[in-house]
Structure formats: C-alpha cells, structure tokens
What does this fold into?
Amino acid sequence: MSMSDFNRKKPSFEIENDNSEARVVYGRNPVRELLENGKPVDRIIVKRGEYDGSISLIVAKARERGIAVSEADIRKLDAYSDGGRHQGVVAFLAPMQFLSIKELIADTSAKNEVPFYLILDGIEDPQNLGAILRSAECAGANGVILPKHHCAPLSPSACKASAGAVEYIPIAKVTNLTRAIEELKDAGLWIYGADADGEHYASVDLSGPAAFVLGSEGHGISRLVRENCDKIISLPLHGKINSLNVSAAAAVILYAAEASRNK
It folds into this structure.
C-alpha cells in the first residue's frame, strides 16, 4: 500500500520544446487576471460577435496593453480548451521556461529564503499534478521539481486544476531525479520521501532546507529515488480506505512542513 496514492489563477496548453512550453489560457476570469497582473500575453482570440459583459472589458484591457485581439468561430476556440470551457476567450502566452536544479537553488538564495521544494516522482494524472502545484504555491514552497519523462504534462486540465499556480511557482524539469536529489543534498538539503512505512510525519522536524518526494498514484516512490531519501515519512490511515489521493497527501505534508518552518 502506498501513501502516495494517499487553482491563485490560470490554465495552459503544453507543447514540449527543450526547456520551454507554449501555453494557452482560456476562460474569462483567468484571461482577465492575466491582463490585470501584467503577464506576457502574446495575443487573444474571442468568439466571433461576442463582446458582451466581461469579454468587452477583456478586449479593452488587451488593446490598452497593445495586445492583438482577433475573432474566431467557436470550433477554433474549442480546439484550444478542455471540453469547450473557454467561455468565448482564449489567450496565448509566451512559452514557460523551466529551471535547472542549480538555477532553482540560485533563485531561492536570491530571495534570502530557506529552500523548501517538492519533488514529484511519476505523477500520472494531470488533475493531481495541478492540485499539487496549487498546494505547493499556497504553502509557500520555493519550487517544484518534475522529471522530464514519466510525468503528467502541464496540460490545460492540469493548469486549470492549479488555479494559476503554474504562473507563480518556479518549476524545474530534470532528466534524472536521483541526480537532482544528489545536487540538492550537495546544497545542504534534507530529502524526505513520503510512503506508507515511514515515521509519523508529525513526529519529524521538517524545518530547515528540505525537499519532499511524492510518488506516483499507483506505485509510490521509485526504488532508486527512495534509496536516496534521507528519511521516509508517513501519514496515518485510520479509516477503512488504505490510501490517500496523492494531491491530498501533498497538501498535508506541505502544510506540516510550513508549520515546522514557521514555529
């Protein structure tokens, strides 16, 4: 049994290209918030003839910022959204840039913050990925580390579930999680793996420079990654269900770490 079974703003559409992702954001509130927060929007498409209510405000704000606005029929907008939930507007953003481990650590150091990272080992469900990113951002994590392979993509549904966390939390993508963990250890971080047979999470001091590893929904943390963790921690399961959804487990662990760090 694996404990690993255990949105502040916008969705996006992933196109892998080395260290970046081209993105699409859809929905009236997400697009409006992008514009109000000064995010780098390349262009906006609205449903042909739909300039009522909030769409008119979006168009006005885009033009105020010098962003190109064009019209398209609903089929084109449907093609860019998850289940046609675009509400008549789609925005195209600049590609997402991912960090290396060295860059992630430097980014945290530049903010004079104690490293607090989340490592995701084989998360397969985009909804879980998005929910975890949301919890990480809300809990004050300095970054999330993802493998380039064997990981759910930052698809529209993942980014929608993140409620915009992808726009705020630094994300590193690495080829080899074991090597990434070695780099983190060399930088002075303690690595905690979350699995069913570890120490009760509440009995462990989770303060200080740390990274927390969560494994896949079905298999938990992979063997090599687990062997490179400094300590395994666990959430108690007292009910008749023998596992938590991984996004729920992530939220508990992240806030346990947040509490330890802010005592």
User: Anything to note?
Assistant: Confidence is low (pLDDT under 50) at residues 1-20. The CA atoms of residues 190 and 210 lie 5 Å apart. The two ends are 32 Å apart (CA to CA). The longest strand covers residues 190-200.
